[in-house]
Design goal:
Helix content: 55-70%
Number of helices: 14
CATH topology of the largest domain: Endonuclease III, domain 1
CATH class of the largest domain: Mainly Alpha
Low-confidence stretches: none
Distance between the termini: 54 Å
CATH superfamily of the largest domain: Hypothetical protein, domain 2
Structural class: mainly alpha
Order of helices and strands: HHHHHHHHHHHHEHHEE
Shape: globular
């Protein structure tokens, strides 16, 4: 059992760190639901430093749900270049289309409605509610998980998120959820650098696979090549241009087709619409 005193001391520790070391990101300024959604989708599996640059570029090109919904897949994927996991870009565009067509351009503030949008899971729905609408919704991401395991399960292995949820809820600032989660994110980021990564003791921990030489890298190269090409390309041309084996090209194409990023017709490969 964790005492009220322990919980209060924990909150003080997090707040004190945040007030002295808070980070200033573009998505923490001029906050609106569209900007928050873009940042949350973009920062999934992307380094913050890289995401910060691309976020500004992306918003300049697509400043609103309306602009993104009207854009072509090619333009969106071109703007997404360098971030990887290209299906995120198309999910974001499809979500914008739903918001424009079904919600009159206004993003829902209910997590149950948000998770119905393309590419939005439970975590993203919770984060959007907290950061865009300042709602006291409980959610757990990598940094939040690291903070709570570090403080409350310091000698435990295989810690399940189910055990963390009551603690996240008990310490949540109901009046200022947005700022509290920002504080947790910044504190958790620091712990990931200066301390042993407590997330390794999570039951949900999965080591990131190596990108260099991976099939993910081949997929990214294919999307970049097809996006920048003025015409449809063939497998043979891709294989020659990318210096990859036919087998790896075929596997990458199959995955991209499944994700709805490219289409293949009469042996020619092009972006899906």
């Amino acid at each position: 059992m964790t005492s009220i005193r322990d919980l209060e001391q924990f909150k003080k520790t997090v707040w004190d760190y945040y007030r002295a070391n808070r980070r200033y990101f573009p998505w923490r300024r001029n906050i609106n639901p569209y900007r928050v959604l873009v940042s949350e989708i973009m920062l999934q599996q992307t380094q913050v430093s890289r995401g910060e640059i691309k976020y500004k570029e992306f918003l300049k090109k697509f400043p609103s749900f309306s602009a993104l919904a009207k854009a072509s897949n090619a333009d969106v994927l071109m703007a997404w270049q360098g971030l990887g996991y290209n299906r995120r870009a198309l999910y974001l565009k499809r979500a914008a289309e739903v918001v424009m067509n079904e919600y009159k351009g206004k993003l829902p503030s209910d997590p149950a409605m948000l998770v119905k949008l393309p590419g939005i899971g439970v975590y993203t729905a919770g984060a959007v509610c907290a950061f865009a609408f300042n709602k006291p919704v409980v959610f757990i991401d990598t940094n939040v998980r690291r903070v709570f395991i570090h403080h409350f399960f310091n000698e435990r292995e295989e810690v399940n998120d189910v055990e963390l949820v009551p603690l996240v809820e008990a310490t949540l600032d109901k009046e200022n959820a947005r700022e509290w989660y920002s504080a947790l994110m910044d504190y958790g980021s620091m712990l990931g650098v200066e301390e042993e990564n407590a997330n390794k003791r999570s039951a949900h921990y999965v080591k990131q696979s190596k990108f260099e030489g991976s099939l993910r890298q081949v997929r990214g190269k294919i999307v970049k090549y097809v996006t920048s090409s003025m015409r449809q390309v063939t497998r043979k041309k891709l294989q020659k241009a990318l210096g990859e084996t036919g087998g790896r090209i075929d596997l990458a194409i199959a995955g991209l087709q499944k994700d709805g990023i490219i289409s293949v017709s009469r042996r020619r490969i092009f972006l899906a619409e």
